[in-house]
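Lay summary. Proteins are chains of building blocks that fold into shapes, and those shapes determine what they do. In this project we predict the shape from the chain. Here is one chain we studied, written as its sequence of building blocks.
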Amino acid sequence: MLSRRGLLATAALSSLPLTRPARAAEEVVRLGILPFGTAAWEAAVIKARRLDEANGFTLETVKLAGNDAARIAFQGSQLDVIVGDLIWAARMNAEGRGVRFLPYSTTEGALMVRADSPITGLKDLAGKRLGIAGGALDKNWLLLKAQGHESGGVDLEASARLAFGAPPLLTQKLETGELDAALLYWQFCARLEAKGFRRLISADDIMRAFGAKGAVALIGYLIDGPVLKDKPDAVQGFARASVAAKDILANEPGAWNLVRPLMAADDAATFEALKRSFLSGIPRRPIATERADGERIYTTLARLGGEQLVGSTGKSLPPDLYLDAAGNG
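And here is the predicted shape, written in a compact code that computers can read:
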């Protein structure tokens, strides 16, 4: 019998071609997008402004049910590009897949509490109900635990009452008071901020505490190695189009009219919070600087998560992992 993950992946793949396009159509770049994911926002701008045509490729978007389905489709060569995290990209590269990482966003999650919460620091979480999105090996949770140990002498795993779960459910429980705090992904944090909740500590704060010199892009576009080999010009065209789309969203307020229907923002406050968080996460640093900070955080996560998180192929980032819009790295 198929697992739930398998069923989701099968459903997601049902509309995909069973083979790669013929050589004549190799300039097509197939991007996997998730419901309400920000990659769909960027793709909408690329298509509306014809940035794909201007950069020598045709963008095709494929809607997927979730991250598991995206990874399975990507590993099955049914997609050229997905949004994923640096840790998984490094693991796939080191294991021989040749995956490359194009920085996409520095916006990360945060530990959220109610505006009137008495919790002001990690020590205050002792005995409190703490929700964690993403599971026991989630990078934000690993970093938060380490921050507690190394800067505050706090063992969150032992002292807090932990509840792992899906972000929408944890968000709801925080709103109803069933949780005292929740470690959530950035879109859920932005939606809560629009309702008056506050950030206790952000993932960016923690990464800087572990030596990062600036905001680190742990989320990126993942490009499969064979795709880069087969159609390098199209991949570089996609990278340039991504940068151009971000610049348009950063500098042309009217461009958000294309995006707002995709945001599930029911009110102006939520729209503005999501927009603000997206724009603040646009990577601006040179790839060499980005990689240096990525290496610092990866080393920390490898130490904390071990082989379960990073695999057995190495404790540092692969040398050829990063890709940039200028074709370097």
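What the prediction tells us: Residues 146 and 304 are 8 Å apart (CA to CA).
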